[in-house]
Design goal:
The structure holds two protein chains of two kinds. Chain A is built from three helices and no strands. Chain A is mainly α. Chain B is built from 18 helices and 18 strands. In chain B, the strands form five sheets. A seven-stranded mixed β-sheet of chain B has the order 5-13-12-11-8-6-7, sandwiched between helices. Chain B is globular. The chains are: A mainly alpha, B alpha/beta. At the A-B interface, helix 1 of A face helix 3 and helix 16 of B. Chain A: Pathway: Sphingolipid metabolism; Lipid metabolism; sphingolipid metabolism.
Chain lengths: 80, 565
């Protein structure tokens, strides 16, 4: 029965989402439109973070370790 | 609205009054005050709120609370309204460019260049928000609106622009929205028989105004009875409650007078004040410091440019404010009125019959003298199961109103069966019909009110207002929850009234329950379990103060801040 409970729980979560964003009062095509736009934006955010965040984090770590740890290191080593 | 849980035992007497505190017929105030009173004597000096105990003005604790809106809920509510506004713009755009059919009133093509009749933007809210959840309002009732009623089932195929009646009726819906405080809205019993007899004798229409040929002996009888009921010298009855306010205030105040009106006064009072032509100043809701400041400024500075003294100063307040469920601080208002020599107009629309150990209204509730209030106004719509309003006061005042009030001179007088209904129900409340039915109803209303409010608070809803008021607003906040709450409650066979903007501030939408003496404990239990279920389904239990309100709280600082759950 866990699947049934899970389905009910997800349905209830979706209902809360409808209520909080006030989509509940809109007509079905407006709901679809809003969901599509929101999903697209969330997908873009996830894609961007997947592609760019590791590189930025690595660069930041290198910068800070270069700053704190090795004052002897030359700047050439940092750029490569 | 800030947290102000003001529980005031009123004075030093409170400590030794505690032993004899249980009086008979106390309007349901059954909480045992012993522990609280004693501890409050010490807590008084340490309390956060600088409200003094007002030198013995209050004979019982004044227990009001307006819990503050949780920050997250407020932000989400604004976001919800923002999204709906965006979609409103989208739909307006589609209607403008004829991509979608427009159901709302429009001018004809030929009149396009004329001065516009229909202001499109003002109706933005109505078109785009109200219409979508319109099925929560204007539901046709096809039975007497007693404790249970029958509703006509409506279907809409075009999202609430039009409704079809399929011929089906939803039966025995528990009625939590009618202003039926003492249960006199019934279709059987003594009141009905008396009204039927009056119809048989006098007919239904009066066909004239009071001044001309519309003054029946029944009207005179009614006015004498109401005067006796209220404890004033004379009263005058009118056919419509709204018209009583809006047509009589212009007769009482005029240019050169000052009207000090509460922030949340009813539309009829506001309309009457505006029609009168007096200067209107508004004080914060139930806030005596604000009122006193306005009074002092008015007396010191006089009229705006000439600085002449005001001809009269009229303070306009209501007994129970129906949107908040709060009760006016009448002892303090009367003290202020006497100190600054102003006049007081008290609108007891919701409190007459519903408050007080003998049902005589908010004056009875506080144990004051009706002669202290200059103009006592009330309606017969709520507790008496009839229609109309009255104004009571000194004989000279009422005689003046008989000739100078618009309503008396131009409006048709009250219909005889309605007058008879009021006479019978009032005699029942006073106990003059030889039974104790009236007193039982008053007691039952008080018990129901206390029970209902306590249970809702325990469940964790945010309830506004005074603990003794039979009007219970439960906060909903988010616009989608307004429609969802109403529909879910109807699915569980309970009819409720939900209120949103513009009757309330934009984020503080609420569901307003009216407790009635006709509700039995079982009905209230059924209603409460349904409310709890819907509250869990819609996540409405916002309150951060749970598990409160038993007589054994430790009344140190936590009694004002609430106990964190």
């Amino acid at each position: 029965m866990d699947v049934k409970n899970l389905k009910d729980y997800l349905h209830w979560l979706y209902y809360q989402y409808l209520l909080i964003t006030s989509i509940y009062v809109l007509e079905p095509w407006e709901q679809t439109l809003f969901n599509t736009v929101l999903f697209t934006m969330v997908a873009m955010v996830i894609y961007t973070s997947y592609v760019f965040v590791p590189i930025h984090v690595r660069l930041a770590l290198k910068f800070f370790s270069g700053l704190c740890g090795g004052q002897q290191e030359s700047t050439v080593a940092l750029i490569s | 609205m800030t947290e102000s849980s003001a529980n005031k035992p009123a004075n030093g007497d409170a400590c030794h009054r505690a032993s004899g505190a249980k009086k008979p017929g106390r309007n349901g105030y059954v909480k045992s005050p012993h522990l609280i009173q004693q501890k409050h004597c010490h807590a008084k000096e340490r309390s956060h709120h600088v409200i003094t105990c007002n030198g013995g003005l209050y004979s019982r604790p004044f227990d009001e609370s307006f819990e503050e809106t949780p920050m997250l809920v407020a932000v989400l509510t604004y976001m919800g309204y923002g999204i709906l506004t965006l979609f409103g713009y989208l739909r307006d755009f589609l209607r403008e460019w004829k991509i979608e059919k427009c159901h709302i009133a429009r001018e004809r093509e030929e009149q396009r260049d004329f001065v516009p009749l229909y202001q499109d933007f003002e109706n933005f809210y109505t078109r785009n928000l109200y219409m979508r959840i319109r099925d929560s309002w204007n539901r046709p009732i096809c039975s007497v609106p007693g404790a249970r009623m029958d509703l006509v089932e409506r279907l809409s195929h075009d999202y609430n622009w039009t409704f079809q009646h399929m011929g089906k009726v939803i039966k025995d819906v528990i009625n939590m929205g009618s202003y039926n405080y003492l249960g006199f809205a019934e279709n059987s019993g003594a009141c009905l028989e008396a009204a039927a007899e009056a119809t048989a004798e006098y007919g239904v229409g009066v066909s004239s105004t009071r001044q001309e040929l519309g003054n029946l002996d029944k009207h005179e009888e009614l006015e004498k009875l109401v005067a006796r009921f209220l404890g004033v010298e004379a009263t005058m009855a009118f056919g419509m409650g709204f018209a009583t306010n809006s047509m009589n205030i212009p007769a009482l105040a005029g240019k050169g007078c000052l009207i000090l009106s509460d922030e949340l006064n009813h539309a009829s009072l506001v309309l009457g004040a505006r029609l009168s032509g007096s200067t209107i100043r508004v004080f914060k809701h139930n806030n005596m410091q604000s009122l006193e400041k306005l009074l002092r400024d008015a007396i010191v500075h006089g009229q705006p440019r000439t600085h002449r003294p005001w001809k009269k100063i009229l303070i306009v307040v209501e007994g129970i404010y129906s949107m908040e469920g709060s009760i006016v601080r009448l002892p303090e208002v009367i003290a202020l009125k006497k100190k600054y020599k102003a006049y007081l107009y008290l609108d007891e629309a919701h409190s007459i019959g519903a408050l007080g150990p003998h049902g005589r209204g908010v004056i009875d509730y506080f144990g004051l003298d009706p002669r202290d209030v200059d103009i006592l106004m009330g309606t017969f719509t709520k507790s008496f199961g009839a229609a109309g309003g009255y104004i009571g006061g000194k004989k000279e005042l009422i005689d003046y109103l008989r000739t100078h009030s618009h309503s008396a001179v131009y409006a048709t007088s009250m219909s005889p069966p309605v007058v008879e209904q009021i006479i019978t129900s009032m005699k029942c409340i006073m106990g003059e019909d030889g039974t104790t039915v009236g007193q039982e109803r008053i007691q039952r209303l008080a018990d129901n009110t206390t029970y209902f409010r306590r249970k809702l608070r325990e469940m964790g809803f945010i309830i506004y207002g005074n603990n003794d008021s039979p009007v219970v607003p439960v906060m909903l906040y988010m616009p989608a929850k307004i429609g969802a709450f109403s529909r879910e409650m109807l699915k569980r066979n309970i009819g409720v009234v939900v209120v949103g903007f513009p009757a309330t501030p934009i984020i503080e939408s609420r569901a307003r329950f009216c407790v009635s003496a006709a509700h039995t404990r079982d009905m209230l239990d059924v209603a409460l379990s349904a409310i709890s279920e819907v509250g869990d389904l819609l996540q409405l239990k916002y309150s951060r103060h749970r598990a409160l309100l038993t007589a054994d709280w430790s009344s140190d600082d936590t009694s004002y801040d609430g106990i964190e759950n």
